Amino acid sequence: MCWIPKGDGLLDFSRTCMPAASTPPNYWPSRSRRWQPLPECSASYPALRFVAGYYRTSQTETYTEDSPGGNHDYFSKLAADWEAASTLSPDCKVRRFIVRSGVVLGRTGGMIKQVYPPFFMGLGGPIGSGNQFFPWIHIEDIAGIFVHGVESDKVHGVLNGVAPQIITNKEFTQALARAMWRPALIPLPALAVDLVFGKERATMMLEGQRVIPKRTLESGYEYVYPDIKDACKECAHLIIDSDEH
């Protein structure tokens, strides 16, 4: 959680990366408590914003910001709880927006940092069948959406923090492998994903979601990296430069 300079707003990056070994009950109390002071302080800051989000995994549905939030498993209920806890009183003159983030791609952490070693050794490959949808966004764009939301008084409600290009996990794998000049022929079996990450997270990774940023685009945000090939090239280029230095 961080304050925008000069008291103009507040951001809470609620959807942080959860260690694979952690069990779900560790997260609910700590996340809910983070929000408790916000209603009390909000009246003094007429531009508070909040961040959270989640959708049901599906191979057939298409989700926009107007789609109902999921309440089907632990993580979706947790995300719904984060969003509900940020609700302010009807008479409060505070503008609030929520960013529901996809998989953030950047060289300093997250998925790229996790998959870089096996991909570098030529051992990368799709997760499971690779046919599941892969809602993604470059780190510059997720940061750009935050800034866009803070600076534009027209932004409110939910924004999907995903790239406009809909791809599968297999297509992401191919783009990253080509950007790194490496093969990607060794898939990670579903059973291994389940054993390593646990059933709840494995379901998210193996089934995926088709999410489009309808309202994000309508709000006027212009993506820096709307194409997965360019995003992966930028990430791989920075990783290689960092390793060489």
TrEMBL record:
SUPFAM superfamilies: NAD(P)-binding Rossmann-fold domains (SSF51735)
Source species, domain of life: Eukaryota
DUF1731 domain residues: 188-234
Pfam short name (any one): DUF1731
Name of the molecule in the record: DUF1731 domain-containing protein
